[in-house]
Amino acid sequence: MKGKVLVLGSDVKSFLSTVRSLGRHGLEVHTAWCSPLSPALKSKYIVRTHTLPLPGAGKSDWLAPFHTLLDKECFDLVIPTDDPTLIPLQLNRNLLSTKSRIYLLDNNVFKTAFDKIAVYRLALDLNIPVAKGAIVTSELEIHKLSALSFPLVLRPQSSYASNNIFDRINACKVYDQDELATALPIFLRQGDCLAQENFSGVGMGIEFIAKDGSLLCAFQHQRLHETITGGPSTYRKSVELNKEMLAASKKLIAALGYTGVGMVEFKYSLLTKQWVLIEINGRFWGSLPLTIAAGIDMPVYLYQLLVQGITSFPERYEPETYCRNLTADMDWFRHNLFADKKDPSLQTVTLAQVFSELVNVFSGREHNDLLVRDDLAPFFADCTTWFKDKLHALRLLLLKTYFSRPLIRELEVHKIKQKLFRTQSILFVCHGNITRSPFAEHYARRIFSSQLNFSSRGTSDISNRVPAKLTQSIAQKLNVDLSNHLSLSISAADMQNNDLIFVFDMENYLTLRLAYPAAKEKIFLLGILAAESNISDPHNKNLAVYEKTYRLIISAINRLEALSEQKPLIAQLIDTPGIGGAETVTIELSLVLLRENIATTVICPAGSEVEKKLKQHHCPVLSFPDYSLYKSTLTLPVFIWKFRRFLLAHNISLIHAHLTGPIIAAGLSAPLAGIPCVGTLHDTFIAKQNYLNLFLLRLVAFLGTKLVTVSRHMQQFYSYLRGFPNKAINLIPNAVCPPTIDYRLCEKLKKELFITEQTFIFISVGRLVRLKRYDLLLESYAKIATTNTRLLLVGDGEERPSLENLAQSLQITDTLHFLGQRNDINELLSLAHCFVLCSEIEGLSRSILEAMAIGLPVIATDVGGNKELVQHCQNGLLVPTLNAQAISEAMTILISDPSKQQAYGQAGKTLAQTQFSLPQMTQSYRKLYDSLIK
User: Fold this and answer.
1) Which residues does 419 contact at the CB level (< 8 Å), separation at least 6?
2) Which candidate, 68, 55, 72, places its Cα nearest to that of 96?
3) 719 in helix, strand or coil?
């Protein structure tokens, strides 16, 4: 034969079989409206595949390109092979080009064959056996079903709505009165309903070709493996024509005046030999490969009938011919293996029968839907796709297992909360954008009080579909209106322009993360918010599944709305019992955040000075958890794990740790809790002396902790060390508050310390530890001490006993005062004339800043960040470290020159106010926090 044919569809059984059949007979086969992923497109019999827009819901923009193709190619015949390709053509037959012959049914035949209720009525009129049933048009007619026995099968009037041809409306099986009462009202919203008693039996079909109501050729098959809940078969055989079923088929064909191909579907009881009519399929059928393998070449017959006018066809075929769809049958085997074999409503097969069927493979009677000698590529493409699908399924299973763990779900919820603080637009994505995502979008719009933008999309490339009537009715029951929704496909712009993207199942999750890797950090499973990892697609499921799905979505979005109302909570972490510079920064920063109405708390040891100070100002405080585990290197991993739970339990959004130990602990715990971490380093001593701590600092920086140094010297020191990520070290100098002084207390202190107007007072504030080198200060002071000088040491620490002994040996105890830990530091500073700091290592001394803020000149060793505060001979004197003689000479200079003392003090005060103010420091930390909580 010579000619050119256009075959429409995607199904690898009816579509591919039609292509092969026509191609083998010399026809030039073109295809269109076929999924680019279909293995059928690998067939060598396809000469060309045309890309055409698919028919959409209520859209006609596909007609013009379709006309253009027909006018250009002038096909001898156009054959739609499935419902989504047949129905649009059938509904628009008057608008189609006449240059190519299109196989369509007569309008009256189409209306009846595609209407299950019309077929049911026609069967009754023709006395053809059907399952006992009733037609219900409203809820008031439910009484019609009282005489029927459960289970009942509720069938829609048509499997496809004319405005939504890509979503099949499936029958629904109900098992009791409660299920019926729930299902029927919703089912009726799709149209009239046919309710029938469930007939237990195997599926059989009589395939035919007819002209003007006269049967030209017929073939019969029996389903051997069909979907266990009812549906397509994966394994079937040819059988002799059943005379009664054939007679019934002829009656139907004659009554309809049928011209074309079709299949009359029956259910047949192997035990009782009784049968009932199910429906008419007015198109090619899924068992077409078996029909051709048995010797009845229906696609060629159709071409000969419509193009060549031939009406006589071979009717003889081989019974007991078997045909299997191998990959689909492997999936069927798994489902059948675990199905309840005692449930009569399930289409199950015993294992004995399954294994006995292997005989057919070796007898040569078994064929394969895709594997044929003359066209191997589609079979291998199908197998490749099947293996990829199984690997994909394994990946999905691993993901499901991962997200089923409570720890992971907690972490994901915390990440969502973090993202919400900076979210303006939220996108919901499912596969088709007709069931789950539009419901989530419209429900979220209804309940959110904040000005968030909501939208929804589908990963499917088919747009402009409307939700099925069943979907709309269930949504309406939950006060969500989907009647005006049209589906849209996801785009790169959608992924980029939305701040949060919620998907519903692992398939959506994996698809989007692989397709848009740049957006993976904002893709989350919506079900996580409802304590579920998956919200599966209810499509083709029963009504209970639909309602459960929507209830889960409602629960998840309700929690999302609650999370959006929470403020981000920032926690400061400090581990020391006393108060020094780092502790003071922690306190002042927390109090400023509190005054600015930012949710904040401080984690510190119970009973510490920091806790006492904060409670005086009514700042929230949390006790440092598991302190004993934290202090031991061996138990630190246990502490980190527990501290992660602590952070999650208190809904902390960001943790800011001070000093090396807390930075390491927080920096290792925060990633496990899914929150950002800031770590302020106040010195370089730990890094210089402890290589393990240096390694751990590098590790936490690599894990995402933003390290902050308080001086340029420290920033340079850490930046030059190897192992820190680029730009990991930030600079935010320490700051000081404008001092408040109680002058009545000052007068009291003068009396207590025996201070007169002639007394010159040196003061030093800090922890009495080795690094501060107070021993050098005492030795330096001893060289210039007189009855008119005083040295005040404010602070406490492990060195105090040895320093007291040193003072006695230097004979300066009369003019030296160990004042210990004090709450009146500003008053003590205001009494002094000069501040002295002899540290061996220093970050950016908070004590120097406090002294400068009071207006004191400063003598300090030239270490660390001291030179960033003390400008030599401008606001103080810098002296070499570990040099007692240089310190005493500097002290002498200031005692002897009051003008320098005053000038240096005023310059230092100006510097502290302009470059090291508390608002500047707080603003810098706020900017850093804001960049991390996003």
Assistant:
1) 499, 500, 522, 524, 934
2) 68
3) helix
